[in-house]
Amino acid sequence: MRAIVLTEPRRAEVVGSRPDPEPGPHDVVVEMTAVGLCGSDLAVHDGTRPTPGRPWVLGHEGGGRIVAVGAAVADRRAGQQVVIEPNYCCFACPPCLRGMTSGCERRRSPGITVPGVLAERVAVPARFAWPLPSPVGPEILACVEPYAVARSAVRRAGVAPGTPCLVVGAGSQGLFTCLTLLEAGARVSVTDSRADRVAFAERIGARPVAPGGGRAFPFVFDTAGVPASWETSARRVATGGTVMVIGMSDEPFGLSTMELTRRQLQVRGSLIYDHPDDFAATVAAVAGAAPRLAGVLRPGVPPEQAERAFAEARTAPGKSWIDLSGWGEDRP
């Protein structure tokens, strides 16, 4: 079986020697057709986010078609188009028992803690392989997971229709956040240090603003999560407003308790989504949102050019993804 593996930092290669997966009793095997790339993948690709070993199968955002089901699986069948929810919670730790599976203490994540999904076929726990209610193009499968991340952040924030919101950072997650806020009826502005990313966000309906002074917003969504973006987020949030932090960095940012208290700010981190409701709601919305989601995507890259896809994910505006559909077509 072929797969795209990391052999050394910044070197992703196609190998043809991986064993075909067999489903456990509660698993399905998915023939992959599309996999998106995000910042977590780039950190693994860089070698700055450690993995259990190398060569390491990359990727976590994507889906395909079920080709085999485990003996105990009754609600999935071969031939279904599915998207993978790539955060396998344990259902038994304290956060999981509270319904906060996003905070699972024993979460397994393809491409990060367990081998990824950039392969011809992968075995997935059946409850984390979500059938699509209506067929969608393979490219849409590459963006359902980050769309779920954005939808969860907007849900947690409680943004009402007509509310002015600022999205800081117009990378791919910023674009999905803009799109989700627009779907919620918010008035969406966006800022980024790169003009090409801001222009891309304008194409899907966001309004550009300068990162400096000016209007304050009751909701700010920081999708970059670095000190420079935090400076913009803290400066542009209104008194009594909320900053939702989606992007992640291990660099500390500055906020005094004096400023936090006097401005009565709420700062909240939003990590992935909570199983099953957030992903179920996203999957239900995908068919209607497909044309808008397609507007965020770049052209798919074939697996043999995986390094180009990773390079584009670092530099080019829009969502980068790898098109694996050809592998299924030429499989005997």
Kindly describe this structure.
The protein is of the alpha/beta class and 332 residues long. It has helices at 39-46, 94-97, 138-141, 144-157, 172-183, 195-203, 227-236, 257-262, 277-294, 306-315, 325-329; strands at 3-8, 11-15, 27-36, 56-57, 61-69, 81-84, 121-125, 129-131, 164-168, 187-191, 207-208, 217-222, 237-245, 266-269, 321-323. It is globular.
What is this structure's SSE topology?
Elements: E1 3-8, E2 11-15, E3 27-36, H1 39-46, E4 56-57, E5 61-69, E6 81-84, H2 94-97, E7 121-125, E8 129-131, H3 138-141, H4 144-157, E9 164-168, H5 172-183, E10 187-191, H6 195-203, E11 207-208, E12 217-222, H7 227-236, E13 237-245, H8 257-262, E14 266-269, H9 277-294, H10 306-315, E15 321-323, H11 325-329
Parallel strand pairs: 9-10, 9-12, 10-11, 12-13, 13-14
Antiparallel strand pairs: 1-2, 1-4, 3-5, 3-7, 3-15, 5-6, 6-8
Helix pairs in contact: 4-5, 4-9
